[in-house]
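Re: the request from the purification team.
They wanted to know what the chain is likely to look like in 3D before they choose a buffer screen. I agreed to run a prediction and write the result into the notebook, where they can find it.
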Amino acid sequence: MKKRSRFYPRVQVDTADVPAVGQAGGVLLTNTIAAAGLDAALASALAPWRKPLAVHDPGKVVLDLALTLALGGDCLADIALLRAEPGVYGRVASDPTVSRCIDALAADAPAALKAINAARATARAAVWSLAGEHAPDHAADAAAPLTLDIDATLITAHSEKEQAAPTFKRGFGHHPLCAFVDHGPDGSGEPLAVLLRAGNAGSNTAADHITVARAALAQLPGHRPGTRPGRRILIRTDGAGASHKFLDWCHGQRLSYSIGFGLPDNTPDLLKQIPAEAWTPAYDAHDAIREGAWVAELTGLLDLTGWPPGMRVIARKERPHPGAQLRITDADGLRVTAFATNSTRGQLPDLELRHRRRARAEDRIRCAKDTGLANLPLHDFDQNQIWCAIVALACELTAWMQMLALTDTDARRWEPKRLRTRLFTIPATLARSGRRQLLHLAAHHPWAAVVHDAVIRLRALTAGPAPAPG
């Protein structure tokens, strides 16, 4: 009888006190914190919440939770991942201390959120300055504006959390509205604001869109309250943002905007008034002409009374995807969509492609849900507001790390799941030599060199410029 071979080696398993380190790739995030000065900024901002004899700084607790989420955790107790590795993550608070810290911050949520957001803005300015030409706002102007995407999402609640309510999709939970800055085709993006709302909050509530847009603008380096940002900033949303009040506000702030726009029921009749030669071929995602898709301007055919002056409406018609259902505003078997913009520079296909790239916001939301936003683990609404701020911190740390350390690699665009699989969980051992601690990354790991080179870049940024001679 032939002996059956095994697919995998049979190894003996035990537990032992060895210098192995779990989540060793997290040094990328801790070095990003140091480069951004986020530790000092949070320690200063949250100083009013530190008790006189406290061992653990509230800023460190918040940062530890953000690191936990970035590494794949989804609840407060997952901070044990960091607590088990003091050689890499330092002293980490116990679960009761973490819970008390969140409770203390939630007891004065508006002030705590303001403090955390101030620290985030300070760190963001430092990161974008270090990134130089790779920063999202580098060379931004009216022709190539810095893009802020606003989009909402639904978070299901499986218990009676405060302000959880039925949603418009017949679920139950919360309906936060988020704003992200787009890093463009060569990067990812980072959250600027997360407004937690009850599950029955409206999709197109103008007041909420204005609140989120203001919070997002306040996070931008160089922004001064009370000043108008101007056309170098583009607000991009779906049709939920197409309200008179929100567009009037954008116009008053002199912002550029690109917002989904609902067409009237007589759209098929309007389209017949557009000559065939006025339709221009649309572009696909790779800037090439897309077969079966065209764009044209509808501004002169619509009654735009009451809308901001200078608003244009651009329509796109295309052959529907297999299985897609046509709507009453579609015509001649073609799907028709439109968006409103006040941009005057650029050809119609370019403006339309820029608007369709709003779909990147959905990628950012998916990444946020992979980083702690999929479930709100706490009961009180104010506690979950603090949780959303920590989620934003976790997403920012990942995005900043990629921007500063992984610019010239494919990892610049990796999403959280791939970063965890390939970089954050890299095996390593911790050794001590004199007063130094050495983290030995496993040389056989396929991406060890990527992590090593990225840490060197981050350390160089943290060290700052060399002193002048003499």
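For the purification team: The longest strand covers residues 289-297.
Please add any questions underneath this entry.
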